Each structure stands twice: as structure tokens, then as C-alpha cells.
Amino acid sequence: MKRLFDIVIAVLLLVLTAPVLLAAAVAIRSRMGAPVLFRQVRPGRGGRPFTLYKFRTMRDALDRDGRPLPDSQRLTSIGSALRRSSIDELPQLFNVLRGDMSLVGPRPLLMEYLPLYSAEQARRHDVRPGITGWAQIHGRNAQSWEDRFRLDVWYVDHQSFLLDLRILARTALTVLAREGISAAGEATMPKFAGSGDASSGHAG
Predict the structure, then answer these.
(1) What is the pTM of this model?
(2) How many angstroms separate the CA atoms of 36 and 29, rounded?
(3) At what angle do helices 18-32 and 77-85 cross, to 10 degrees?
(4) CA–CA dist 62, 21 (Å, integer)
(5) pLDDT, tens digit, for every residue of 2-38?
């Protein structure tokens, strides 16, 4: 039932947001050039890798040593607008259709985090990752990693169709209110470096 619901709603949303998708793609292409989409390998259910799609929001700017500049320096004005409105997430509807993701589930993070999770935190990969989730309606990027993972595992243990509907409804309100877009002092969220420790960087 969850998979069927994902497919039906993803198709419906793609049809309804087609003008928004086109406008965003044109804006990114004209302001930042190619590519329009940001692609990155992320862990899915069971930690299996898949390619996640988002609209590109950052410039490919490097420092003198060839390393990417901090997110705050690479995030563009159009990219910031796309993030505030969550339009940058819309291409993940194609991930839902492919079966890589669900509409609701723990957000897919970085492959490099896999060996850093505790056994309890790793349970977030017992289900398909989602475009939105229980953690996203309780602070998004403004919460600590430990709180975020605790909420993810809570969802794994309590998932249901009615809970998914509740999360989707709350997500719409959270997006409209533009709450929790970034952690304090960060363009997105500090990088996870294991429980109780973090350093600055892009967490998606």
C-alpha cells in the first residue's frame, strides 16, 4: 500500500509541479550554467547505494588547494531561494518512482556516514529513505544529529499509512513556514563525525 501510494502521489506531484520544475531548471541553467541537477550517491534501504537527484544550488568553487569552498560561500542566491522553498528537492520524485526512495522516511545522508553510526542509529536504514520524514517535521536541519537519528529510528518502529499522511501534511506547513532550513551558523547542517562530535561541511 505504501509503495502504491508513493507512485500515485509522485506522478501526481510531477504533473502538478511541471511548470515549477521547468522554471527552476531554466533559472539554474541561466544563472549557474550546467549541470542543472545535483547527483550524489547516497545510502538507501539496507545501506545500498543509489543516485539521488536534486536541483543544483551551489557553485563548484574551489580554494587555492583545489578543495571545495565552505557551503556558505558556494550557495548562490537562486540556490538559497530553492532551498527555502524546498523546490530543490522536487527531482527526488523521480527517485521515488524508481523505488530508490519513498515519500516519507529518514532522509538519505552521505555514504561516508555509514561506518560512523551506532547500531541503533544504523536502524534508520531498515526502511526506504524519504523526501520528508518524522525528523524533518521536528526541526529539519536545526536539530542535533543525535535528535535527528532518534526521531528517524522512532519512525522506523512506528511507521504506518496514517503516520505518513500526518507527516506529509505537517511537511507542507513546515515548508510554507520555512522553518529549520539550516543549523545555527551553517548554510545547511554541520557534518556528522560520529555521536557527540561534528565538524563543518555539507550534509545535504
Answers:
(1) 0.82
(2) 6
(3) 160
(4) 28
(5) 999 999 999 999 999 999 999 999 999 998 888 999 9
What pLDDT digit, counting tens, does each position of 57-87 carry? 987 766 667 677 666 677 888 888 998 888 9
Mean pLDDT, the chain, as a whole number?
86
pLDDT tens-digit readout, 140-199: 666 889 999 999 999 999 999 999 999 999 998 888 776 655 544 444 677 888 875 433
CB–CB of 177/159 below 8 Å?
no
